[in-house]
Amino acid sequence: MGLYRLSLVLVILLGLLVHVMCVGETNSTCSLAAAKSPHLRLNRYLFCDYDITVRPVIHHKNATNISIHFDPLRIDFMDESSTFILHTWNTWSWMDEFLTWNPKDFDGINETRVESAKIWTPDLALYNSADMTETQIGIPSVPCILVNDGQLVCIAPVKYVTHCTTDFTYWPYDEQTCNIRLSSWNNHALDINIDYNNSTIEMGYYKTNNEWDVRAFILKEHVKYYDCCPETFWSTIVPTFILRRHPSMVHTIFITTAFVFTLITLTVSYLDARSNERVLLSMLNFVCHVLIISVLHWVLPHNGPNGSPHLLLFYRDSWIIATFEIALTALLRRLQSTRRNLPYWLIFTVSLIEGNRICRFLLLGEQVDVDDGKLFIAINGSSPSEIDDENASLSDVNLQNSSKNLASDSWRKVTIIIERLVLIFVAFTYLMLFIVLIPREQS
């Protein structure tokens, strides 16, 4: 029993000895700072019992206000992945109530440099990150400026990678709106509040991009409440950038080509259906449309739920017109070679057109002799009394041959009317396509 008591006393004495040694060593370390340089004494004074896991406020109900200043250096936007990349210098500023001192006690030192890894830093996170392989929470390890009143300023280069909701409807004159969303990862706004009023964006150090212009930049603040915690809210700062594409090279390739294809298609409509030039040009026009649409398939980014870009829709509709021109050319060539008499409704329609000078000029493009018109009507079933006496004296064989020739000429007039109507229709269709689908540079 006596041995047990003796052992217990020894253990207690040993514990007291260890405690005294540890406390003495700590006090010795902090007290040794008094014998060193002013900066070293200040460092020991500030960090002797500093805890980086504790939010630096004396009263825990007070919020820590964080202001952020953005100085973008470079902006990249990747079409294929709808990824926005922002390279920027960020300046974070907040008050640390645990890191204050009287400059008179340290030879007039009113500011010093401290490593961000040695102090409490806000756990700001990129909420719309597109690169989950990198942890973008907190502030990078950099030297920070500490002022004697507790003001901390940390400046560091940062790369933000986010995903944009893109819209390529008006490609190559499209504009993309991209943003980054920064907020505290674990603390609501009653603990860590992003001071929107003192946060700014400046483009003084920005280096222009060869493909994109920064048309505008806006700094927004979003406040969100959650059903789980109605008494608290989360504050999010949202720098937003509106980007506009440089369309110079793409404009030369695809917009100019649209005008060229339009002229080719109109030329096909204007040419005589009997000419081999029309057949060859219509086939060439069709092949060129196939090639340009294939190229656009690889060049154009996918537009997602916003539908196809207007430029692709223009070439699609122009391709349909080119296909229609090929089918129409084959049909008109077939009609011009027929020997059958015209139906009565076609006879009536053509006679009305021939009787109107404006329609005759626009659709037939030539003056038609009235006697020819009478003969045209007579041969196709009108009253024989309208045929001249000289024509009535022809032999039956000559009359039959003449009837076939006149029937062929009648179908020729019908095809001319169809060609002119199609030309007007195609020209009007392209006019509408240019107004609706050809993108234009916005002011």
Summarize the structure.
By secondary structure, this protein is an alpha+beta fold. The chain contains 10 helices and 12 strands. The strands form 2 sheets. Strands 1, 2, 3, 5, 6, 9 and 10 form a 7-stranded mixed sheet that branches. Strands 4, 7, 8, 11 and 12 form a 5-stranded antiparallel sheet that branches.
Question: What is the overall silhouette?
Answer: rod-shaped
Total helices: the number is 10
Order of helices and strands: HHEEEEEEEEEEEEHHHHHHHH
Strand content: 15-25%
Counting structural domains, the number is 2
Structure notes:
- This protein has 443 residues and is of the alpha+beta class.
- The protein has two domains: 38-245, Acetylcholine Binding Protein, Chain: A, CATH 2.70.170; 249-365 and 410-437, Methane Monooxygenase Hydroxylase, Chain G, domain 1 (Up-down Bundle), CATH 1.20.58.
- The chain is built from ten helices and twelve strands.
- It has helices at residues 2-32, 38-47, 248-270, 276-299, 310-336, 344-355, 357-364, 370-379, 389-392, 396-436, and strands at 64-78, 83-95, 111-115, 124-126, 143-147, 151-163, 175-179, 182-184, 192-194, 200-201, 212-226, 229-245.
- The strands form two sheets. Strands 1, 2, 3, 5, 6, 9 and 10 form a seven-stranded mixed β-sheet that branches. Strands 4, 7, 8, 11 and 12 form a five-stranded antiparallel β-sheet that branches.
- The radius of gyration is 43 Å and the shape is rod-shaped.
- Residues 22-29 and 367-404 have low confidence and may be disordered.
